[in-house]
Design goal:
This protein has 326 residues and is α/β, with parallel strands linked by helices. 38% of the residues lie in helices and 14% in strands. The strands form 2 sheets. Strands 7-6-5-8-9 form a 5-stranded parallel sheet. Helix 2 packs across helix 6 and helix 3 crosses helix 12. The longest helix is centred in the last third of the chain and has 20 residues. The chain is globular, with a radius of gyration of 19 Å.
Length: 326
């Protein structure tokens, strides 16, 4: 699907009040977000990287789980849009005294806020929050459920490299069972017409995942055959605390499922992505992380533009592109 065409056919606003996941976002809505993000990326290339679009709008970042890239990216996006930003972290807050998510959110909303960005370890936390507050809610990652803005920045990065998603072959590698990034990317890629292959150990592959319209293999060489984009996922040891180990060792995982320089030599057009943080020598060989066909830093740059676009569109203050293009 040609994203320029999608963006021009097109919506002038999102059909959703919140961004909780990409599972029910249409190709047209995704196209609108990506097109708007391109306008904001132009803003980020200026000498003065700030626009007054969200002046007077208050955004609260509720982070109940550790984050670096996502939190900083949202904070920068809010500042670039001139929003008033309040940052909340669970450590040192009333949460440590036993306050519930519902009470925390309602107390903060009583201070008259407009948007809430939430990162939480529990799947469904963002959905739950919409029943507790009147503010717009943006999901910055909820457990192993979804991470929609990460998928959107991944899609923006791919759209810079390929003219169309229709027929694009994308392989997502690694710990699928614990990955919110994989789920959001599957929903977004499938909506835009891409073919998705999942690859990883059987112990890390959810039962019935094929029902989402993806192909599953447990052999890396098979997964990379005909692949345009390989997205390696971080091994999330912090989510694997229950039950036996899911693979013998990190060394063996790298041998069987890690992307190495030899793979780039065998597939000269292959583009490598990773949502970060990268475990060098596990998901990707160190030489691959630093290779010119690894677009990991481009993903980080696009993250700010995408989050600016999401904040802007969900705030609904003006016609899309008006302030961004100016």
């Amino acid at each position: 699907m040609d994203l320029t065409t999608v963006a021009q056919e097109k919506l002038t606003a999102l059909n959703h009040r919140h961004l909780l996941g990409l599972v029910d976002y249409s190709a047209e809505e995704i196209g609108l977000i990506l097109e708007t993000a391109r306008h904001f990326r132009d803003v980020l290339d200026r000498r003065i990287r700030r626009v007054p679009t969200l002046r007077g709008v208050t955004v609260v970042n509720l982070f109940f789980e550790a984050s670096t890239r996502t939190r900083i990216s949202f904070e920068l996006a809010e500042k670039r849009l001139s929003a008033d930003t309040v940052n909340f972290s669970a450590s040192g807050s009333s949460v440590s005294k036993g306050e519930t998510l519902k009470d925390t959110a309602r107390n903060i909303e009583a201070m008259k806020i407009d948007l809430v960005v939430i990162r939480h370890k529990s799947p469904g936390a963002a959905h739950f929050l919409t029943r507790c507050v009147e503010s717009v809610v943006i999901n910055a990652g909820d457990g192993a459920h979804e991470h929609p803005t990460q998928a959107l920045l991944d899609l923006l990065t791919m759209s810079d490299l390929f003219a169309s998603f229709e027929g694009l072959n994308v392989c997502i590698l690694g710990d699928i069972a614990h990955s919110r990034v994989a789920r959001s990317n599957i929903f977004g890629l499938r909506a835009l017409g891409a073919n998705v292959t999942l690859c990883g150990p059987r112990t890390m592959m959810p039962v019935g995942i094929e029902d989402l319209g993806v192909r599953v293999t447990h052999r890396l060489d098979e997964a990379l055959e005909g692949c345009d984009v390989a997205m390696a996922l971080r091994i999330q040891l912090e989510r694997q605390t229950d039950g036996p180990a899911l693979f013998p060792s990190l060394r063996e995982y790298h041998e069987r499922f890690g992307i190495r320089l030899a793979h780039l030599e065998q597939h000269p057009d292959l583009v490598v992505m990773h949502p970060g943080p990268v475990n060098r020598g596990v998901e990707l060989a160190s030489e691959v992380v630093d290779h010119e066909r690894a677009v990991i830093l481009d993903q980080v740059t696009n993250g700010v533009a995408v989050r600016m676009a999401v904040l802007y569109l969900l705030a609904g203050l003006m016609a899309p592109g008006e302030e961004a293009a100016g």
